[in-house]
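Case study 2.
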Amino acid sequence: MSSAEPSARGVRPEQEALFSTAAEYYARFRPGLPGPAVQLLAGALAGRRAPVLLDLGTGTGQVPQALLAAVPRLAHVEAVDVNRAMLVQSRSVLGPLLGGRTLRLVHGSAHSYTAASGTDSVAPDLVTCCRSFHWMDRPAVLAMADRVAAPDATVAIMGDGSLWTHRAPWTRQLRELIQRHLGTARRAGPADAYTAPVRSYEEDLAASPWSDVAEHRFPVTRTWTPQGVVGYLRTTSFANAGLFPDSSRHDVFERDALTLLTALAEEDGPLVEQAEFRVLLARRPGGAR
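Prediction:
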């Protein structure tokens, strides 16, 4: 059973637009969570009879999708995103997995999240944020989590960079191609350049109620096809279709990218990404482990 919140909380138009053209490609082209990372998250819910998950910046629901399979006793999911199209995709992905479990989709900014009122109110045992914390008001999100989460809850902040940040000869040439089409600055939406967080996530957590932090790193090797990379680029803030003046310019970019990647794969071998998926598990000091 699932429900959706009818109105957005704290969503600015530019946030809604950032991934407006990307939602339909997320489930097809975005890498999922590595198995060991899923097991780590499942372990954070060990011993709980009917745990509740709050997933912030859920996108198409990759974290709930993984945990609904890994934690059969997971009773309820709260999935939050600023983009309605993402939530539509999330509903289609997660709905068939629910069985007798419940899902609430919340259209809004992560820091503005509030639990449902009355008898539907739930306190999450695990608060997750995968590949999205850098877009958020991080201190406000951590303060919100402290207000709504169960006393012995865990916050998990996760990510593994992107093909823009990955350092390999083929990704360098891909990045240069993107810059020729869209300018040298890394884009973060139609009108903005990306600005990296001033503080590290560890510093954000140290200044929050969630200052008991354990870091976990999982090496991941991905082999991409040229078509898979082009599909992945449609999901990014730095090369999706919405950044181009019109569809014809985007078509030219995709043709150039496919030509480049095909040539690189034929000349130098498979397009391999050696990534590292990092998970910060944070708890309140003195909380149960």
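The longest helix spans residues 247-268.
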